[in-house]
Amino acid sequence: MEEATPAAVRQLRLVVQVDDFEEAVRFYRDTLGLPVELHVESEGGAEVVILDAGRATLELSNAAQVELIDRVEVGRPVSPKFRLALEVTDADGATRRAVEAGAQLVAEPTRTPWDSLNARLETPGGIQLTLFEELGG
Predict the structure, then answer these.
(1) Considering the domain boundaries, does residue 83 fall inside one?
(2) What is the CATH number of the domain that holds 121?
(3) What is the DSSP pairing of strand 128-134 with strand 47-51?
(4) pLDDT values of the chain reduced to their tens digit, one per residue, 137 residues
(5) Does 119 reside within a domain?
(6) Distances (CA, A) of 18 to 9, 22, 47, 69, 125
(7) What's the structural domain count of the chain?
(8) What residues are paired with 136 via a beta bridge?
């Protein structure tokens, strides 16, 4: 592994403005189990919660790859410009809990050609989400 330089990226943080802040926090913190790393309240009602989502990666896909993933997971094109994907240990259970907490099911958990079980949801806050469970050893 290469030695990190002082200018190396140390964290990927996705910043999302949500209309119903409390609902979005409850969904990601309580339903999906992302622990609070930092919660700051500021003047004028400004508020931010930073949740620990484990290891972060940046997945860059061309249009053909996005179309392939949509076809496999959902059966039709549905992806916006960005989609959040979270690895879970139980895609069926996590999907069920997410729907019970207010997420809209776009596609049931589906086994993919790359050997994962992927579900697609629309979350409170309007983020398209893939919950995926790696099945291969």
Answers:
(1) yes
(2) 3.10.180.10
(3) unpaired
(4) 566 566 677 888 899 999 999 999 999 999 999 999 999 999 999 999 999 999 998 899 999 999 999 999 999 999 988 999 999 999 999 999 999 999 999 999 999 998 999 999 999 888 999 999 999 86
(5) yes
(6) 26, 9, 11, 26, 5
(7) 1
(8) none
